[in-house]
UniProtKB/TrEMBL annotation, chain A:
Pathway this chain belongs to: Cofactor biosynthesis; thiamine diphosphate biosynthesis
Keywords assigned by UniProt, alphabetized: Cytoplasm, Schiff base, Thiamine biosynthesis, Transferase
Lineage, opening ranks: Bacteria, Pseudomonadati, Pseudomonadota, Betaproteobacteria, Nitrosomonadales
UniProt-annotated location(s): Cytoplasm
Family: Belongs to the ThiG family.
Subunit structure, as described in the record: Homotetramer. Forms heterodimers with either ThiH or ThiS.
Protein name: Thiazole synthase
Gene Ontology MF term list: thiazole synthase activity
Chain positions recorded as 1-deoxy-D-xylulose 5-phosphate binding sites: 162, 188-189, 210-211
Catalysed reactions, as listed in the record: [ThiS sulfur-carrier protein]-C-terminal-Gly-aminoethanethioate + 2-iminoacetate + 1-deoxy-D-xylulose 5-phosphate = [ThiS sulfur-carrier protein]-C-terminal Gly-Gly + 2-[(2R,5Z)-2-carboxy-4-methylthiazol-5(2H)-ylidene]ethyl phosphate + 2 H2O + H(+)
Domain Thiazole synthase ThiG per the UniProt entry, residue ranges: 7-254
Role this protein plays: Catalyzes the rearrangement of 1-deoxy-D-xylulose 5-phosphate (DXP) to produce the thiazole phosphate moiety of thiamine. Sulfur is provided by the thiocarboxylate moiety of the carrier protein ThiS. In vitro, sulfur can be provided by H(2)S.
TrEMBL record, chain B:
Entries under NCBIfam families matching the protein: thiS
Protein name: Sulfur carrier protein ThiS
Signal peptide start and end residues: none
Pfam families: ThiS
Coiled-coil stretches noted in the UniProt entry, renumbered to this chain: none
Amino acid sequence: MSDTLAIAGKNYASRLLVGTGKYKDFTETRAAIDASGAEIVTVAIRRTNIGQDVSTPSLLDYLPPSEFTYLPNTAGCYSAEDAVRTLRLARELLDDHRLVKLEVLGDPNTLYPNVTETLAAAKTLVKEGFEVMVYTSDDPIIAKQLEDIGCVAVMPLASLIGSGMGILNPWNLQIIIESANIPVLVDAGVGCASDAAIAMELGCAGVLMNTAIAAARDPVMMAGAMKKAIEAGRESFLAGRMAKKLYSATPSSPTTGMIG
Amino acid sequence: MQIFVNGKKIQLPVDGLSVMGLVVHMQLVGKRIAIERNGDILPRSQFDQVFLRDGDKLEIVGAVGGG
């Protein structure tokens, strides 16, 4: 199948990108990610626990970088400076890895993105050679500005991080998708498989999610459902839907040869 | 000699310890980590060439689960 997701010159068979947080344990993390079929997984960069038992397993033991493309994020950063600092560390941590997810938050309650800080951080990161996939609001003008700065993908929210509220403004997403020359991925807000399918039917290049899978009653089953929804949504988009009309005088069955 | 690691004060028994020496001391050998010293990234290749000074501020980070 040649319909791949191209990001920064690399092709991916899966259009579902997943986070690795909020799981019960690493075994569940791995099982859910396997079921999702995702090739790109986000990770957070945090202080190492000093003095912890050295035999404590780490996320990397369960998700080896040889099997997945890591997407280090800047979750929890509230300034451009902190976000840039975090990703410089990530680059060193992951052997000059350049593909990153930039997110700069503006409010700890809603986790709404701070777009002015995001723009500033994106400028610095692109200048330093990072390949920036950027989380942002669903503002089409900001999305365009992020593309012009040189980000490799723009990732507007469907609704707020962790809310599971689904796609609240499909019209804005459609405007962003229509005007973008880089992949547009929905990041955040997806709650269930139909949300993911709708995002793909709008023409999104992919969807990034974490909580929708991790907070499901059965995360592994939901991961499988998301995989199918992304594939179904993509095919539905490519196939081209029929025109909507209020009613149709053309029934699906022949009008001739009726009995009686 | 006293340094700060991840915001915590750490008393080192010897002076002139290299960053590699600290990594060994903290039992982080073989762990995938990145280190920032006084605000600057310290490439892994320089761990054994850079020596700690009193009051140094280090951040030692790793990858964890996140969305």
